[in-house]
Amino acid sequence: MISIFVAMSYAKLAGLEPIYGLYSGFVPIFIYVIFGSSRQLAIGPVALVSLLVSNVLSGIADSADALYTELAILLALMVGILECIMGLLRLGWLIRFISHSVISGFTTASAIVIALSQAKYFLGYEIDRSSEIVPIIKSIISGADEFSWPPFVMGSIILAILLTMKHLGKSRKHLRFLRVMGPLTAVVLGTTFVKIYDPSSITLVGDIPQGLPSFSIPKSFQYAKSLIPTTLLITGVAILESVGIAKALAAKNGYELDSNQELFGLGVANIFGSFFSAYPTTGSFSRSAVNHESGAKTGLSGIVTGIIMGCALLFLTPLFEYIPQCALAAIVISAVIGLVDYEEAIFLWHVDKKDFLLWTITSTTTLFLGIEIGVLIGVGVSLAFVIHESANPHIAVLGRLPGTTVYRNVQQYPEAYTYNGIVIVRIDAPIYFANISYIKDRLREYEVVVDKLTRRGPKVERIYFVILEMAPVTYIDSSAVQALKDLHHEYKSRDIQIAISNPNREVLLTLSKSGAVELIGKEWYFVRVHDAVQVCLQHVQSIKEAPKASDPSSEGKPSFFQRLLKQRWEDLSVSELESGNNKPSDSKQSDPQLEPLLFRKS
Description:
By secondary structure, the protein is α/β, with parallel strands linked by helices. Helices cover 57% and strands 6% of the residues. Mean pLDDT is 85; it is low at 549-557, 562-577 and 579-595.
């Protein structure tokens, strides 16, 4: 029974007659059971979608006109088609770009607007229909002289009862049934009072047509273009709300859920619903939670709900005539109060100020500028944060942990030490055209700024080797490869050698195809950072022992790196080099761990 009165309440929120809420909770639920994949998800009218429908249609037609109803039904068809297309093309992943902070801020602001929009049934006079908070508040204040006490008192009492029952149902397991019985209790109490006292100042639902919906094709297709933005928005809400709820319930009940099939099922349900006078429907969190808590394990729960809705349409609609409007408004307000997610804002403030800013921007713009603008700004700022993070990736200077061959971020591990003449840099992101300039700038910065306090090994005055740890780099594009080549030439002109450590197969293949492997030198690609460090230490020692003065007029002498490569296998003891000891070891055997990545034999 809860679905009956909730559906009627949300239809009023959408600006429609209550009967369309019943229609929307009838046919779509049977279709979803066939095509959907969730066993607990309860679909039907929901508060957020109802607000979106009201927001867009009120700007096109008056809610009393037949055109308004036709457009709501057409909107269901358009939403269903888009959901089916996205499900078939497996495009549900697009919604992943909307962060949880945006969703939370948007639903919080929408819940406030929804609650205020229901104030007219409490106050006893009409207020402006708007998705912005300022016009609603102005309308409430300007009409205060028409205030009526009876609906306000009745609505407040019913709302207090609903909230009390919901609280007891959540806090005490043995009283869980009270949460489900809330809407029914509100309707029974309100109807009983009206039947006994018949107060003229309390508006009633009125006459509701009896019988099942008839088949009809949606009309007014000439308005379809103006409905496209709302269609996209409702589809986004459907994915975020329905698929998110369905996945959570599937995880709790131990079965797999295909989000694309779920989206397709919702789409087919909306398409068929539009042929039977339904407006857009999606999954409901509260009613799905009731299904889960009641122990529903199959789609049979949806079929039972649909049968009850059909029985109500056939036999019970005459009884609904005396339901007070303020009772339905109280049901809506009690439902959306739970959407005001102030706890999330407090959590974000303590955990991540950037996400808190995003939450604040989305909720504020939704409240004061409207739903569509609020969502667009929230998503835009969210994408801007993503792009900024991608274009400015985390880059760490690595040092060696004492007593190990493990290299870690020196800022995270202050005890880690580095080596004179060598900079080890880890790039923690794919390298592509948008971030390569930032990476190059940081590498130049590390070349200049050297922390002398944590360095060991042979004493040299500047950097001679830059080791790039590329294990976290999952992808590198052509622009980044070209920039890497340019960086190599720039370093070469200053007698600095690049070494590459642990690139994955795809990255190594890209570097090989582009000629970067041959340009840098196959001998400068290594499996481990430690392998690269050992080789570079040997060369740093060779640099220190080389004559410091040379004849500037001499020509034809081998270059700096040619001299280094000639001395490559004149090994020094690694332990001596790491400690800064300049005396060469007597051992002439090569450590197999020093073999470059591209020369290693399996």
